[in-house]
Design brief:
GMP Synthetase, Chain A, domain 3, alpha/beta, six-stranded mixed sheet, 34% helix, 2 domains
Length: 302
């Protein structure tokens, strides 16, 4: 017999790159899962996270931003995002507070109309605008699409998070849990470690480099006495000139990235970490099907 008090289902977060999807998801879950930075293309893989309460369980699929693809990695990311729309009970569309609805938003609206799934508009970063202008911004988006609900939030400060959770539950069916209560992600540890290293590189490096980097975990092994996790990882970039910038003068930049990443990895694993980083050049890897797959972006998983 179906559980008539407990709800469970799937929600996805979509929006243009860098609108705050990962920040919102981290706040809803109450723990850092998705990496965040102020640069585009931060999220590449679909990240599955889980929110569980007495009311029910929400499985979040965080997608790469929907945008016009410029290379094979871009095509992969857009395909992941659009495929996800077909698998969920409700979509959260994140936008920034403005009454200018650009071509990017119009493109997303067209994609959503084909998906035929309930959509909640989440207007993020409301702390950055005059409150008196907010109704006009919301109205501009209401004209674009027939939303089930419209919620203004500040993901960075956790404003209106409970209202978002309750809005999602409205569209979930009654049913059993998909995951145990203590599960917060189905991401393998190695993948989260790689993403944390990539986040620190994104935040530390110059504007033109981060688009062209990936991180491969070469070795991740706990010592027999359980005292330390040894991790060897390689940052892959597209140009020889980028390699020099990533390493920095006397290796200073690479040490800075490694030091910041190690602290977060230790917090996640709750143990000491010995992190060794290397840098390799793989030219035009974002346009190579083989290398895209090799760095963890497998088209077969879409």
């Amino acid at each position: 017999m179906e559980n008539e008090t407990f709800k469970s289902g799937f929600a996805t977060l979509i929006g243009r790159p860098n609108v705050g999807k990962s920040t919102l998801m981290n706040h809803l879950i109450g723990q850092k899962i998705a990496i965040t930075s102020n640069k585009p293309q931060t999220t590449r893989n679909r990240i599955q996270t889980v929110y569980t309460s007495k009311q029910g369980q929400i499985v979040f699929l965080d997608t790469p931003g929907i945008h016009k693809a410029k290379n094979k990695l871009g095509e992969y990311m857009v395909n992941v995002a659009e495929q996800t729309l077909k698998e969920v009970d409700v979509v959260l569309w994140l936008v920034e507070p403005t009454d200018f609805v650009g071509k990017g938003e119009q493109h997303i609206a067209e994609v959503l109309k084909k998906a035929n799934v309930p959509v909640i508009l989440i207007m993020n970063k409301i702390d950055t605008v005059n409150k008196e202008k907010l109704p006009g911004f919301l109205e501009a988006y209401r004209k674009l699409y027939p939303f089930e609900d419209v919620i203004p939030v500040c993901a960075l400060r956790g404003v209106n998070m409970e209202r978002v959770i309750q809005a999602i539950f409205r569209f979930l069916p009654y049913g059993p849990k998909f995951y145990d209560d203590d599960t917060i992600t189905d991401q393998p540890q190695r993948q989260i470690v790689a993403e944390l290293i990539r986040e620190k590189a994104l935040r530390t490096l110059e504007e033109e480099i981060p688009h062209g980097i990936a991180v491969a975990i070469d070795r991740m092994r706990e010592r027999e006495d359980g005292s330390i996790m040894d991790i060897d990882a390689t940052i892959i970039c597209e140009k020889d000139s980028h390699k020099g910038i990533i390493i920095g003068k006397g290796g200073a930049m690479l040490r800075r990235i490694g030091s910041q990443a190690r602290r977060e990895i230790e917090n996640m694993l709750e143990m000491k970490v010995n992190l060794q980083l290397w840098v390799k050049v793989k030219k035009d890897w974002r346009d190579s099907d083989f290398l895209i797959k090799n760095f963890g972006y497998d088209k077969k998983e879409i």
